[in-house]
Design brief:
The protein is of the alpha/beta class and 225 residues long. It has 2 domains: 94 residues, Type I PLP-dependent aspartate aminotransferase-like (Major domain) (Aspartate Aminotransferase, domain 2); 116 residues, Aspartate Aminotransferase, domain 1. The protein has 8 helices and 6 strands. α1 runs parallel beside α2.
Length: 225
């Protein structure tokens, strides 16, 4: 059952608010709107890119009926804290998950992620955390040096390394959901994040090329604090 159907089944609809992240996953906000409710955006934890429970708490109003937590890049949201908040406030808490990969594939991603963790310089590597499956290996390219994230991505691609910006525009900046809301961690993540490849098919030589291409630019950057 989809998110909109789950919300409707729980009686969430017109006049209700549902707290969701703005960092990617526009389909979650669309599902809330389809159910007839209003999506309200809360900020993310800068380490996990998932909803920050404290930001969710701050976004609650008397009309809040539910929270939809989204697991991001292979890291789970702090669902225990969000469920505890839901119980205290009488809110429905739903999870929007990511597709599961086979264990062997996850193990190989973790191996490649560990390789990059040990070798990358000048970018902030992801915080591993318990259970990280590295669906995407997302680094931060700090904006206080040169080049910035977009220039960094272009330079890395010119060396034959595939990379992608995981969230180009936060949902609260999209025309259908534009809101005047302060989401500093969401904005910063949208400006700084870059996903590097850790596919199970990558060879050691290819992983070395990824690290070398990034590190060739690392001296131009100040590590993100």
């Amino acid at each position: 059952m989809g998110t909109a159907a789950l919300l409707r089944a729980a009686g969430v609809g017109l006049g209700d608010e549902v707290v969701v992240p703005a960092f990617g996953n526009v389909e979650v906000a669309e599902a809330v709107a389809t159910a007839g409710a209003l999506p309200v955006f809360a900020d993310i934890d800068p380490a996990t890119y998932c909803l920050d429970p404290a930001a969710v708490d701050a976004a609650l109003t008397p009309r809040t009926a539910a929270v939809v937590a989204v697991h991001r890049f292979g890291l789970p949201a702090d669902i225990g804290t969000l469920h505890a908040l839901g119980r205290r406030q009488g809110l429905l808490v739903l999870e929007h998950g990511e597709s599961e990969a086979p264990y062997d594939e996850i193990a190989q991603r973790r191996e490649r992620a560990a390789f990059l963790d040990a070798r990358l310089r000048g970018v902030r590597t992801p915080e591993g955390g318990v259970g990280h499956t590295y669906q995407q290996y997302v680094v931060r390219v700090p904006g206080n040096g040169r080049p910035d994230r977009d220039a960094f991505a272009r330079a890395v691609r010119s060396k034959g390394v595939e990379c992608r910006v995981p969230v180009k525009t936060p949902v609260h900046r999209l025309p259908d959901f534009r809101r005047c809301v302060s989401l500093p961690e969401t904005e910063r993540a949208a400006d700084e994040t870059l996903a590097l490849p850790v596919d199970a098919s990558l060879t050691k030589r290819e992983m070395q090329r990824i690290a070398a291409a990034c590190n060739a630019l690392g001296g131009l950057l100040q590590p993100a604090g």
